[in-house]
Amino acid sequence: MALKVGFVGTGGIANRHLQNTAKRDDIEMVGYADVVLDRAQAAAEAYGGNAYESFMDLYDNEAPDAIVICTPPFAHGDIEVEAAQRGIHFFVEKPVAISMDMANGVQEAVETSGIATQVGYMFRFSEALIQVRKLLADRPIAMVQAHYYMPGLPPPAWWPYMNKGGGQLVEQATHMLDLGRFLAGEVATVTGETACVRDWIEVPDGYEPEGLLKYSESFDIPDVTGLLMRYEGGALGTLSCSLVPQATWDVGFKVVADGLLVTIEGPNASWVGDEEGEMKAGENWAEYVLYELYDQLLAGSTQTSVPYLEGVKSLAISLAGYESVKRGGVPVRIADLLG
């Protein structure tokens, strides 16, 4: 019997999940909800099923077994809680929430319901990074270093607002913070600094945006961020982020361990030291995180590799960075943010 799956949010990253789900002959795509009804209707026309403007209508009319949630950060919360209360399993794209109150509330609903959940931290499913985790398992880790430099501002209308997207640290760099947890263990404390070094709202005459933006009519997020993290295992970690327009994307991730230096580029990795090698992710590695949820449910299991709690823990690192800024740059304990 096919698994009945619905989608909440059908723009942007949802397209990947729609396409990957459509490859499966054991999944019935029953409905799509989006506040922009035209997007939901386009998905229904492409993949079959019905379109809705409200996720409540999707739940009421289709009674899906599972849903895939791909909304902007600020729209999370009620979607997940209502699903949990109805016993609907869910996959949710990162970040899982915009605040710890929201995330902790959803986690409580998930624990009460016993449903299966999965968060879209796809890098955890790269064969190359799984191999790196094995190589690091028995080595003292000294440093986890990451940077994420974008040549401009993403175009979605909610991106320049802290109360809608959470800035680059919450919405985007969460992948790198989660990867640090995957490879080096839990973070104990975070110290953060932020700044806005560029005038984004003085839009020049004749400016016609294309792709990433160099100006915005409003802008209340940092355009540069730096974090210092202390891991529970003793390692230190750094993360630097920037939106300031420059020449090109520059994303990097390294792990320094006893006898090994690991360099990670996207889902691929190389390492030198007392062992040397390199490894690439499988061709369809980005599918695995969603497929695991489907496969587990079809097998009658609710156990997944990246349940909702993992998303809560990774979100806490981002928000601890902002909380540190509010407190004047003092370290913030992750444990204090978790419900």
Structure characterization notes:
The chain is an alpha/beta fold and about 350 residues long. The protein folds into two domains: about 5-120 and about 285-305, 3-Layer(aba) Sandwich (Rossmann fold), CATH 3.40.50; about 125-280 and about 315-335, Dihydrodipicolinate Reductase, domain 2 (2-Layer Sandwich), CATH 3.30.360.10. It contains eleven helices and 15 strands. The strands form two sheets. Strands 14-13-12-11-7-10-9-8-15 form a nine-stranded mixed beta sheet. Strands 3-2-1-4-5-6 form a six-stranded parallel beta sheet, with helices on both faces. β1, α1 and β2 (about 25-35) form a beta-alpha-beta unit. The longest helix has 19 residues, at about 310-325. The radius of gyration is 20 Å and the shape is globular. About 45% of the residues are buried. The mean pLDDT is about 95.
Task: Write a short abstract of this structure.
A nine-stranded mixed sheet has the order 14-13-12-11-7-10-9-8-15. A six-stranded parallel sheet has the order 3-2-1-4-5-6, sandwiched between helices.
Helix-strand category: alpha/beta
Q: From the 3D coordinates, which CATH architecture of the largest domain would you assign?
A: 2-Layer Sandwich
Q: Ends: how far apart?
A: 38 Å
For the secondary structure, the number of strands is 15
Q: How many structurally independent domains?
A: 2
Number of helices: 11
CATH-derived topology of the largest domain: Dihydrodipicolinate Reductase, domain 2
